[in-house]
Each structure stands twice: as structure tokens, then as C-alpha cells.
Write a structure and sequence with these properties.
This protein is α+β, with helices and mostly antiparallel strands and 448 residues long. The chain folds into 3 domains: 136 residues, no CATH class; 97 residues, Phosphorylase Kinase, domain 1, CATH 3.30.200; 202 residues, Aminoglycoside phosphotransferase (APH), C-terminal lobe (Aminoglycoside 3'-phosphotransferase, Chain: A, domain 2), CATH 3.90.1200.10. 43% of the residues lie in helices and 20% in strands. The strands form 4 sheets. Strands 1-2-3-5-4 form a 5-stranded antiparallel beta sheet, sandwiched between helices. A 5-stranded antiparallel beta sheet has the order 6-7-8-10-9. A hairpin with a 4-residue loop joins strand 9 and strand 10. The longest helix has 18 residues. The termini are far apart. One of its GO terms (molecular function) is transferase activity. Keywords: Transferase. This is Aminoglycoside phosphotransferase family protein.
Length: 448
């Protein structure tokens, strides 16, 4: 084992007895139930992890460690991504806690640790808690991130990636969204202000995203970002940058007119009117599996309500399975987060989950997100209703399809899929929000 890894192990053990974790009561209950993952408490506690990293790398000026994303597999692993301030600059890192039985995997990871260009030190293996900490751009499944940090390496990489776009050869890269081992989104900024969006995917997510980028086009009343470059080797797609205001940000403006949602409905109808090209099918079986998986994720962190959650999800899955198949191009993850308002035009972004499926899925997904905003006290119930009605009115006027009878079912299903996000996004009241989300889904499903 490299000397750096031995040093990390010894310092970690000296710290173990003294540290008292500052977790919420819901977090503490979760930790007490899953003893198979010994480092679960450490990765969920930003202060504990920051203290451990400070001991291991005292030369790194690490401040304000803030957990922003969690991917938890009970009895197996828990990955947490953090925003961190290092030397006054914001960056990303992630820690992954493994089960005690994953010794072989940990040995392999320990033998392949890399030095981070951001932190100037190796990734850390904390053997006593079976936790590995990766500093950006190090990522076990997004290896090409390493080409984006060092200026000279990045310039060479961008020349090959964008040979016909010299304005981006010396571009800077700014991180926008990062889900470790799954997906990265960054903004390219050229020397004269030119901008583009660079997206990098894990192996199993690239092909669907590429098909979505190829299959949905701009049409009357609809703007879709053009793909300007791609690399299958590095699993990268580059899109044009579209200026505008995100719809979910506009919701809070006092002068926002809910009738703008009619334009959004009409733009969605333009998506559904397209042939879909190479899109894969979103079958009823796949939808049912997705609902059950979301319910299982909630049951894992809310065991007192697990039986009720599973029974309700099974009921909705059964209702979906009894419906006839529908095959039109759908967005697959439609919400106000994916919509830009620009000079009276509607731009719809991120067709990574696009498929051939039921158009009601997109309408229900959007309305489920409105329900979620209300539960989080982001919008009032009155605004929620006005937004949903305007969306449906705009869609009805622009589309020949008739998915309206299924919107209620898909709204309830959409809320079930959103319920795990309370824990995944580290909401302070994640347990209460998860339960409220499920209750609201039940109310909608029962409101015939």
C-alpha cells in the first residue's frame, strides 16, 4: 500500500474514538439501522468529514463543506457529493462509504488512487470506516473529467473535441451540475464570451442521452439546444448555449403571468408531435419498475411507513400496467427546471431521458413538480393550480392527442419518483418532506 494511504489509515483511527457526529435525529436512526456500512455516519456529517480531511491534509485550506447530493444503497454503499471552499474557490468532492464486505473493492480503489489537480493531494482511503474520498476531477466512472482542469491539457482536448469551433479551443470550464459517477454538466466560456454546454455521462447513460439529442428538434414555438459536438470515446455531448430565464426562477416574480404556461404547454405539444427517431420505448413495465424502485428507496430511509409506501406504489404500478401502450416522443423528465423563457420563445432543455411513451407522463411530471414546490413552500396552492391549468389549456389547444384522463395517475406517480429526492438532496427535514410527498400522492390518486 502506498505510504500516503498508510498515513491516512493511521490518522483516521486516532480520530475515531474522539469524534461525536452531529446528525439530525432522522439521520441517526438511519445510521443505527445500517451497521453494514460503517462509514455511513461519517459521510452524512459534513463537520465530521471536514475534520477528518483537515487532519489528513492540513495544508489544504478546506472550508464550508456542504452535502448536496446522496446516492444510498442500503447495506451496500452511500455516496455523498459536497460543495467545498478550498483556498477561497468553490469546488466539488465526493465520499463513498462501502459495506464492510467490500474489502477487495477497497483494495483495488486504494491501489488506483490519483492526485487531484484541484487539491494537490491523493484521494483518501479511510480504512477504519471503509470510506473513500475523491477530489474533483477524480471520478471512478467519469475519467475524462481529468482533461478539463489543467489549462494545457484542456486546450488540447477541446481542439480534438471541437475541431470546427476554434472559439472554444482555449475556453474556460465552469461547473454547473455534478452527480459523481453518473453525470457532469459544465459551461464552456470562450475568450470573447462565447458559451456552450458540455455534458459527460457514465457508460450506461450516454447512449440514451445521445439518442435524445439527435431525435428532438426545434419547431414552431419550441427551441431545442443543438448538439454541436460529441465523443463516444469520452461519452461527451456539447450543446449550444441558450440565453434565457429558467421558468422555476420566474415563478417567484410578483409580475409573473401564469398564462406564460400556455406557451409551455404548446411547446410540449410540439415535442409530442415529433416522430422520435432513435428513441427507445418507455414501456408500461418500465414505468411500473420505476415507481416500485422509488418506493423502495423511500422505504429504506422511512421504515416505519415502508409497508404503506410499497402497497401504494404497487397499486399505481398496477393501474399503469392495465393501460394500453402509448408511443409518442416524450421528454421523460419534464419540469420547470428544464424550461427557459426567452423573448416570448420557450426552450426545453435536457432530453437525456427522452423516449417513446405516454404524453400524459410529461404533463403529470410537470404538475408533480408543482406539487413538490408547494410542499417545500416554494409556491402557493393558488399559483400551483393556476400554473397547472394554464399548462393543460395550452397543450390542449396545440395538440391532437388526448392524454388528459391519465394526468392524475401520472401526477401521483411523479410525486412518488420525487419523494426520494428529499433525502438525496439533503433537505434538512427530509423525513417529514418524504412522508408529506407520499401523502400528497395518495390524495391525488384517490381524488377521482
Amino acid at each position: 500500500m502506498p505510504q500516503c494511504m498508510r498515513f491516512n489509515r493511521l490518522r483516521a483511527r486516532s480520530r475515531r474514538e474522539r469524534r461525536r457526529f452531529m446528525l439530525t435525529p432522522a439521520d441517526e436512526q438511519l445510521v443505527s439501522r445500517d451497521l453494514a456500512v460503517p462509514g455511513l455516519a461519517l459521510v452524512l456529517d459534513e463537520d465530521a468529514l471536514a475534520g477528518r480531511l483537515h487532519e489528513l491534509a492540513p495544508h489544504v485550506e478546506l472550508k464550508h463543506l456542504n452535502a448536496v447530493y446522496v446516492r444510498y444503497k442500503p447495506k451496500t454503499s452511500c455516496l455523498v457529493c459536497y460543495k467545498a471552499s478550498v483556498g477561497g474557490n468553490e469546488t466539488d468532492l465526493y465520499a463513498k462509504a462501502y459495506a464492510q464486505t467490500a474489502s477487495r473493492k477497497l483494495e483495488k480503489i486504494g491501489s488506483n488512487t490519483r492526485k487531484s489537480m484541484t487539491f494537490g493531494c491523493s484521494d483518501f482511503l479511510l480504512e477504519d470506516s471503509a470510506v473513500v474520498v475523491h477530489f474533483f476531477p477524480n471520478d471512478r466512472k467519469l475519467a475524462a473529467l481529468g482533461h478539463l482542469v489543467d489549462k494545457k491539457i484542456r486546450q488540447k482536448f477541446l481542439r480534438k473535441l471541437l475541431p470546427e469551433r476554434p472559439v472554444f479551443w482555449e475556453a474556460a470550464v465552469r461547473n454547473l451540475h455534478y452527480k459523481p459517477e453518473r453525470r457532469y454538466v459544465g459551461k464552456l466560456v470562450g475568450e470573447s464570451g462565447e458559451r456552450a454546454v458540455l455534458k459527460m455521462y457514465a457508460e450506461d447513460e450516454y447512449a440514451p442521452a445521445e439518442h435524445g439529442a439527435r431525435s428532438v428538434k426545434s419547431r414552431r414555438g419550441l427551441r431545442v439546444a443543438r448538439r454541436i459536438a460529441s465523443s463516444r470515446r469520452h461519452r461527451i455531448l456539447v450543446f449550444e448555449w441558450i440565453k434565457g430565464e429558467f421558468l422555476h426562477n420566474a415563478f417567484g416574480a410578483p409580475d409573473f403571468n401564469p398564462l406564460r404556461l400556455r406557451q409551455v404547454g404548446a411547446a410540449l405539444a410540439e415535442v409530442h408531435a415529433q416522430e422520435g427517431g432513435r428513441l427507445g420505448e418507455q414501456s408500461r413495465e418500465a414505468e411500473a419498475v420505476g415507481i416500485m424502485a422509488a418506493a423502495e428507496a423511500c422505504a429504506a430511509v422511512c421504515p416505519d411507513c415502508a409497508g404503506q409506501m410499497r402497497a401504494f406504489a404497487l397499486r399505481l404500478a398496477g393501474e399503469l400496467l392495465r393501460l394500453p401502450s402509448e408511443r409518442c416522443a416524450i421528454h421523460g423528465d419534464f419540469s420547470a427546471d428544464q424550461i427557459l423563457l426567452r423573448n416570448g420563445t420557450i426552450a426545453i432543455l435536457d432530453f437525456d431521458s427522452a423516449a417513446l411513451g405516454d404524453p400524459a407522463a410529461d404533463l403529470g411530471s410537470f404538475i408533480a413538480r408543482l406539487e413538490w414546490y408547494e410542499l417545500k413552500e416554494g409556491i402557493t396552492g393558488e399559483k400551483k393550480q393556476a400554473f397547472a391549468s394554464a399548462l393543460i389549456d395550452g397543450y390542449r389547444a396545440a395538440s391532437h392527442l388526448d392524454p388528459f384522463a391519465r394526468i392524475r395517475l401520472y401526477t401521483a406517480a411523479g410525486l412518488i419518483r420525487l419523494a426520494p429526492h428529499a433525502f438525496r438532496s439533503r433537505e434538512q427535514n427530509w423525513l417529514q418532506l418524504t412522508l408529506r410527498t407520499f401523502r400528497r400522492a395518495m390524495e391525488i390518486a384517490d381524488n377521482e
